[in-house]
Amino acid sequence: xxxxxxxxxxxxxxxxxxxxxxxxxxxxxxxxxxxxxxxxxxxxxxxxxxxxxxxxxxxxxxxxxxxxxxxxxxxxxxxxxxxxxxxxxxxxxxxxxxxxxxxxxxxxxxxxxxxxxxxxxxxxxxxxxxxxxxxxxxxxxxxxxxxxxxxxxxxxxxxxxxxxxxxxxxxxxxxxxxxxxxxxxxxxxxxxxxxxxxxxxxxxxxxxxxxxxxxxxxxxxxxxxxxxxxxxxxxxxxxxxxxxxxxxxxxxxxxxxxxxxxxxxxxxxxxxxxxxxxxxxxxxxxxxxxxxxxxxxxxxxxxxxxxxxxxxxxxxxxxxxxxxxxxxxxxxxxxxxxxxxxxxxxxxxxxx
Length: 352
Description:
- By secondary structure, the chain is α/β, with parallel strands linked by helices.
- The chain has a single domain (5-348), classed as Aldolase class I (TIM Barrel), CATH 3.20.20.
- It has helices spanning 5-18, 73-89, 99-103, 131-146, 157-162, 173-183, 199-208, 223-230, 235-238, 248-258, 273-282, 291-297, 301-322, 327-330, 339-348, and strands spanning 33-35, 52-54, 57-59, 63-65, 92-94, 122-127, 150-155, 188-192, 212-214, 264-267, 286-289, 335-337.
- The termini are far apart.
């Protein structure tokens, strides 16, 4: 096993739990999106449905508990708690990078949550730098070991480049990803980890054959900050990259400009139902959140369930106030963008 992989997972859990690793000045730019209020919505809030389909799976809420952890015994309890809540509410869930269990099979159980959640849409996870080593067989092994319905390939160049010994050879990523998409009999989702997806990157990912894109925009947890606090980064040069990346709202527009049909998960710094509703109106199909559920998991399954329901109710409130009774109608809701987001969209030629 690569030295430190499991310990690194424990470091991540403790740092995110105890330290302030949120973006310092950059935000998600979701605050530059206004949904247009409709005074005559002509609907009953009780009749609003949050049901949606993603990758062929029915969800009660358009919510993904984003992949966070695994690979250390302390991670097992977190994953089991999150999975039990996902099963109770009918949301999707991802696990953290499965690299640790491929290196050390004894850690496999830290990712296994089917006992707690036999029916949910569950996404496996492996980093794109590991594709050359493990290939399609490694991805299939990782997916099968946890009973995954889909698989996320995470893109974490920012985290790698700030590490003193990070993997900074990104040559051949597109070819490696295309091989996975062609060979693995599961939907493959490309997942950023806090730096966002550009239009150009989205086109490359779509060309490779991904079934969906999780934009992982900037404005929330900064993984360069996590590495700085771990003491594994060159602190002086890395501090400048604490807020690096494309803000979440801008990344939605970037990816949607590359394709009108590719399924999009909006994630990165989202904290409530109104922000989720704005992202769906902008062009996302569902939203992913990690930090709110990670913190709730410290207080058990019921706390995570309550957080999911609270976010769902916030989405419903936004739908009621915009006259949208379904996810399809929310996607068509009128909105206005302004400020930095409008400047970005105009400069980049991103059209609604």
